[in-house]
Specification:
Layout lengths: L1 E2 L9 H31 L14 E5 L15 H10 L4 E3 L5 E3 L2 E6 L5 E6 L21 H12 L25 E5 L2 E5 L7 H4 L10 H7 L13 E7 L3 E6 L18 E5 L4 H9 L5 E3 L6 H4 L14 E16 L6 H4 L6 H9 L3 H8 L5 E2 L24 H10 L11 E5 L4 H12 L5 E5 L2 H9 L5 E7 L6 H4 L20 H11 L4 H18 L2 E14 L2 E2 L15 E2 L3
Parallel strand pairs: 2-11, 15-16
Antiparallel strand pairs: 1-16, 3-4, 5-6, 6-8, 7-8, 9-10, 10-11, 12-18, 13-17, 13-18, 14-18, 19-20
Helix pairs in contact: 1-6, 1-12, 9-11, 15-16
C-alpha cells in the first residue's frame, strides 16, 4: 500500500498544513462515531460477577497484542514484561523515580574497580507452592538459584533474547571461568570483565528474575505456560487468546510502610481483545480498570485539544502522565558500502540535515498527538534521563529556509534533480509520516510513504533493507548508554541494534570511554558529546520524546506511573463501587 500527498506551491505553508490537519481530524471523528454506534452494545454487557469472584478485588486490563510467554527469559516485549513483573522478582528493583532498591537482595557491594558485584540475599523468600516441591510448599530461594537462572539466560540452547544483558561477564581463569558464584546460600557474586556502571539497572529487568531449576527442568519448553516465581501474584490459568488470571500470593515477602503484607488485591485478570475501540469502550463501561496511552480514534471523544480529559469524564476516569523513556525517530541507513545506500541521496549529510530542518515538530505534536510527548529539539537521548540537557545538546528546529540552503549546497536547488525518497512505516504512524511528507514537499524534497506490516517492517529494518524508516527506541534500562549503543559501530544489525549502520571514529572512542567511567558526572558529559555528533551527522531524524499516559477507573488507587512504563500491581488498591 502506498500513499502520496500532492502539494501546491502557490498556497501558503501554514494554510495548507492546517487544512491537511483538519482533514485528518475530521476523518478520525468519523471513524470514532461509526465505532461507537456499532460497538456500543458489544461493550455494554451485564456487570454481574460470578459467585466465585463476588466480593473479590480484581484488577482487570486488556492486552490487545497478546502475551507469548510467561518465562522471564523471553520477556522481550512490554506485554510479556508486564505479566512477568507480577510473577517474579530479581535481586534489585526500580521505584517510579528510577531509583534502584533492594528486592531479593537486602544489600550489595561493588568492588573499587567496578568489576565485582556482591549481593546478600534475603533468607526468608520462597517460590510459589508447587507439587514438585517438598510437601507441595514453595522452596526457599538461595544464591545458587540465581546462578542457574543467569546461566540459563546466556545458554545458547535456551536462545533467550535477553542474553545481551550479560555481555561483559568475566569468563577467566581467575574466577574459574564462572562469572556467577554462589559463595553460600545467601551470598552471590557476579564478575564482569570490565566496569559497566549501568549494570545494576540492567539487573532490574525481568530477564534477570529468579526461577526454580526443578520446575523449569520438569516442564522444559512448556515452562512458559507453567510459571513459578516469587512474585506478588501466582499463575492461575491461561485460556490462550481469551483470558489469563493471576491470584494473590498469600506468602509474599514484601510489606508496606505500615507492615501490612502486599499485595492488597486478590487477583489480576488479563483479556486479549484485539480491537482497541472495543477495549476502550469496555473501559468506559467499567469492565476494565486501566488502559495505557491516548492512541486510537477515541482520543477525539474524550480528550480536549490540549490533551486533557473532557469534563464529562473527569469523575469516572483518573489520568496519569509522565515523560516516557522512548524516542520516536526516522532512521536513515548511512553505510555507503551497501548497494541501496550507494545511489541514495540520503548518503549526503546535507540532505539528511535538510530533512531535519524541514518539518515542524511542534505543530506535528500539537495537532496529531494532542500534545502527548515533547517535540525532539535536542538529541537522541530522551527527556527523563539524568544526562538529558536540552540547553547543552541543541538539536533541530523548524527552519525551511535553512533546509533550502542545505539542499542548494548539496546540489539540489529547490529540490531539482533530487530523486524521490521512500519512507517506510507501519499503519499506526501513517499520519505522522504523511505530515512530514507534506512539509518536506514544500521545500522540494519529494517523499513517498510506503506502509508495511509491522512484522515485515521490523524484519526489513533488522536486515538493512530499508533506506529510510520510522522506528522507536524504548529504554531497556535507565541509562543513556542504552540509546547511544544504537550508533556504536560494533553493534551493526543483525548482530546489534545499530539499524542505521552509523560508524564514526570519534563517537566510538567516546562510547568506549563512557563504558568504563564510574563517575556519573563525567559519563554524562561523554554521553552529551556523543549526542552532539549524532545531531551533526544526522543518521536519524528525531521526532519526539514520548509520554506515558495511564487512564484508570476512579476507584483504583496507587497504580503509579514511571518513565519506563512498567506495570506494577503489588501496591494497587481497589475501592468497591
Amino acid at each position: 500500500m502506498k500513499t502520496t500527498i500532492k502539494t501546491s506551491k502557490n498556497q501558503h505553508h501554514n494554510s495548507l498544513t492546517l487544512q491537511y490537519l483538519k482533514f485528518n481530524v475530521m476523518n478520525y471523528s468519523k471513524i470514532l462515531l461509526a465505532s461507537i454506534i456499532s460497538l456500543y452494545f458489544i461493550s455494554c454487557g451485564n456487570h454481574s460477577k460470578s459467585d466465585k469472584t463476588a466480593g473479590k478485588k480484581i484488577f482487570r486490563y486488556n492486552e490487545s497484542a497478546g502475551i507469548t510467554s510467561l518465562d522471564p527469559a523471553f520477556s522481550r516485549n512490554i506485554e510479556n514484561i508486564w505479566a512477568c513483573n507480577q510473577l517474579y522478582n530479581g535481586l534489585v528493583q526500580m521505584d517510579d523515580n528510577l531509583k534502584i532498591e533492594p528486592c531479593l537482595a537486602n544489600r550489595w557491594e561493588i568492588s573499587e574497580d567496578g568489576t565485582t558485584y556482591t549481593f546478600y540475599i534475603k533468607n526468608d523468600v520462597y517460590f510459589h507452592d508447587h507439587e514438585l516441591f517438598e510437601n507441595k510448599k514453595g522452596r526457599k530461594v538461595v544464591a545458587s538459584d540465581f546462578v542457574y537462572s543467569f546461566n540459563r539466560i546466556i545458554d545458547s540452547k535456551v536462545a533467550s533474547p535477553g542474553a545481551w544483558v550479560f555481555n561483559n561477564l568475566a569468563f577467566d581463569e581467575q574466577h574459574n571461568y564462572s562469572p556467577f558464584e554462589a559463595v553460600n546460600d545467601t551470598t552471590l557474586k557476579i564478575h564482569l570483565s570490565t566496569p559497566f556502571p549501568p549494570f545494576l539497572g540492567v539487573l532490574t529487568m525481568q530477564y534477570c528474575a529468579v526461577v526454580p531449576h526443578e520446575i523449569v527442568e520438569y516442564y522444559k519448553n512448556d515452562y512458559s505456560s507453567n510459571p513459578i516465581g516469587t512474585g506478588p501474584f501466582k499463575f492461575k490459568m491461561w485460556d490462550e487468546g481469551n483470558k489469563m488470571v493471576f491470584i494473590k500470593n498469600e506468602n509474599y515477602f514484601e510489606k508496606d510502610e505500615k507492615g501490612n503484607p502486599l499485595p492488597y488485591i486478590d487477583a489480576v485478570a488479563i483479556t486479549f481483545i484485539k480491537d482497541e475501540e472495543v477495549e476502550f469502550l469496555k473501559f468506559l463501561n467499567g469492565d476494565l480498570d486501566f488502559v495505557s496511552g491516548r492512541e486510537g480514534s477515541y482520543k477525539e471523544e474524550i480528550f480536549t485539544a490540549d490533551g486533557n480529559l473532557k469534563e464529562k469524564y473527569q469523575e469516572q476516569i483518573t489520568m496519569l502522565t509522565h515523560p516516557y523513556l522512548n524516542t520516536e525517530y526516522l532512521g536513515i541507513l548511512v553505510n555507503d558500502e551497501l548497494d541501496i545506500v550507494a545511489n541514495s541521496p540520503l548518503k549526503k549529510k546535507l540532505v539528511r540535515q535538510a530533512i531535519n530542518y524541514g518539518f515542524d515538530r511542534d505543530q506535528m505534536i500539537a495537532y496529531l498527538r494532542k500534545n502527548i510527548g515533547t517535540p525532539a529539539h535536542s538529541g537522541f537521548v530522551p527527556k527523563g534521563l539524568p544526562s538529558y540537557n536540552e540547553e547543552e545538546v541543541k538539536g533541530y528546529t523548524y527552519n525551511p529556509e535553512k533546509a533550502k540552503e542545505l539542499l542548494y549546497a548539496a546540489g539540489f536547488t529547490n529540490g531539482k534533480n533530487l530523486p524521490e525518497i521512500t519512507l517506510f512505516t507501519t499503519m499506526g504512524y501513517v499520519d505522522l509520516c504523511e505530515f512530514i511528507q507534506h512539509q518536506l514537499g514544500e521545500i522540494g524534497i519529494k517523499v513517498k510513504v510506503e506502509i508495511l506490516q509491522a512484522t515485515t517492517h521490523r524484519e526489513l529494518v533488522a536486515r538493512s533493507k530499508l533506506n529510510f524508516f520510522r522506528k522507536s527506541w524504548i529504554a531497556d534500562y535507565p541509562d543513556a548508554e542504552n540509546y547511544l549503543a544504537l550508533f556504536y559501530s560494533k553493534n551493526f544489525t543483525p548482530h546489534g541494534p545499530n539499524y542505521t549502520q552509523f560508524k564514526n571514529f570519534e563517537f566510538d572512542k567516546l562510547y568506549e570511554k563512557a563504558q568504563s567511567e564510574i563517575n556519573d558526572s563525567i559519563r554524562y558529559t561523554l554521553y552529551r558529546s556523543m549526542d552532539k555528533i549524532l545531531i551533526e551527522e544526522a543518521p536519524v531524524v528525531t521526532l519526539y520524546y514520548d509520554e506515558v499516559v495511564r487512564l484508570i477507573q476512579a476507584n483504583v488507587d496507587d497504580l503509579g506511573i514511571n518513565p519506563i512504563n512498567l506495570l506494577t500491581l503489588k501496591h494497587v488498591k481497589i475501592d468497591k463501587k
